[in-house]
Write a structure and sequence with these properties.
heterodimer; A: alpha+beta; nine-stranded mixed sheet; globular; B: alpha+beta; 3 strands
């Protein structure tokens, strides 16, 4: 049996907005933030494209929604800011038993949205050639568009069983619940969620987690231990960030700024070509852009490190 | 832990953390180097708002000096924000008796 999976890649780093929206929409998903994207793995394929459209509209960003059926069919839809830009079906006659050529798929649009104009011919070839396994086509598209590899071969069902690709850190997954049509979820959540995983929802919490928190608050000794653990976690976090290197740049490397993850800046270099112009306004603009690039990357790394440390600490507390 | 009441301390802690977050979001600091030849404004601790460079520094002959001053001004701005964060979180720790 081949792969069955679906996922959405959002071109945004606004993790909180994505999660808040999924919770508001009562969608049961796994959310995985990467450096430049947020990947969403919905539980139900039927909600995939509608969810992608709405997320793209809500976050005013591009959304690339892919569904693979038994490794025989790849269907994708590309949205931007709530508009459908492109759709593709590798085997439109599959379900009616007909051997038909692929339909849709606009290589130029894909390359334009993901700023890789030079890959147009390669993408066009990938969309039209025959693949034995459609997840290989997915893999090839992702590589050319420079999208996160963790979406290839990865869907809700696999992730729930901790069957995750190497590029994906299971502890960094965030689970949102629950589907409007998934009434049993509240009762199942504690049992079905893998340990060490973030769990975010508003109305129907995990009873196990709630009772553990209540116990802790009613026991000063336990609370003090929790604080000690949190402090140890904070120390781990600071140590990890001190060892992290962050590099920001602007103007195709005209200005490069390096920093440690603990916000100790280690270097700023400006290219001689930029200085030769003696245009102070341009240099100010480039330095500002590079500084904000560093700041953004530091935030992303901080979030990832914080989640990792927090998950470890909560796990040790039995939460 | 020195909480005297049996009340759940988490809501108040959460409230104070939100307050600190709001206060930090509202601050704006200016990092300065070279007697004001380079000025960098950082707001909310997360966004660089502006960079001002004395035009005399924008030349190939001053490359190293400019890079050094930019680094100093950036670190100055960041350090000011980090100090604010430390002062505010220390106050929170004291209130709840965390060592």
């Amino acid at each position: 049996m081949g792969n069955f999976y679906s996922n959405i890649t959002l071109s945004t780093d606004d993790r909180d907005k994505v999660i808040a929206f999924l919770i508001e929409q009562k969608r049961h998903t796994f959310v995985y933030p990467t450096d430049r994207f947020i990947c969403v793995f919905p539980k139900h394929d039927s909600a995939l494209f509608e969810m992608a459209l709405k997320l793209s509209d809500e976050c005013k960003c591009a959304a690339f929604a892919v569904m693979i059926h038994d490794d025989d069919v790849l269907v994708y839809k590309l949205f931007d800011s709530g508009n459908l830009l492109d759709e593709y079906n590798s085997s439109p006659g599959y379900f009616s038993g007909l051997d038909q050529e692929s339909t849709g798929g606009d290589a130029e649009k894909l390359c334009q949205v993901y700023s890789v104009p030079a890959e147009k011919a390669a993408i066009e070839e990938i969309l039209r050639k025959k693949y034995t396994f459609e997840s290989n086509r997915h893999d090839a598209i992702i590589a050319k568009l420079d999208l996160p590899y963790c979406t290839v071969g990865s869907g809700f069902g696999y992730l729930q069983k901790d069957d995750a690709p190497e590029e994906l850190v299971v502890a960094d997954l965030i689970e949102t619940a629950a589907d409007a049509d998934d009434a049993a979820f509240a009762d199942e959540s504690s049992a079905s969620s893998a340990p060490g995983r973030n769990y975010q929802e508003l109305d129907q919490g995990s009873n196990l987690a709630k009772s553990a928190v209540t116990n802790m608050l009613n026991d000063p000794e336990l609370l003090q231990r929790a604080w000690a653990k949190a402090k140890a976690g904070a120390d781990d976090y600071v140590k990890a960030m001190m060892e992290t290197e962050v590099k920001g740049s602007a103007g195709d490397g005209a200005v490069v700024i390096t920093s440690k993850g603990n916000l100790q800046f280690t270097g700023i270099t400006i290219s001689k070509q930029s200085l030769a112009l003696e245009d102070v306004g341009k240099i100010e603009e480039l330095v500002l852009a590079a500084l904000n690039d560093v700041a953004q990357q530091t935030r992303t790394k901080m979030e990832a490190t914080k989640r990792k440390v927090l998950n470890q600490q909560l796990g040790q507390l039995g939460l | 832990m020195t909480n005297n009441s049996n009340e759940n301390p988490l809501p108040r802690m959460h409230q104070l953390l939100l307050k600190i977050r709001r206060e930090l979001d509202a601050i704006q600091v200016e990092g300065i180097a070279g007697d004001g030849a380079v000025r960098i404004v950082l707001s909310g601790g997360t966004r660089f708002e502006s960079v001002k460079i004395d035009p005399s520094l924008a030349s190939e002959s001053n490359k190293e000096k400019l890079e050094k001053l930019l680094l100093e001004a950036t670190q100055d701005a960041v350090n000011q924000v980090l100090l604010q964060v430390k002062l505010k979180t220390d106050a929170l720790r004291q209130e709840f008796g965390f060592k």
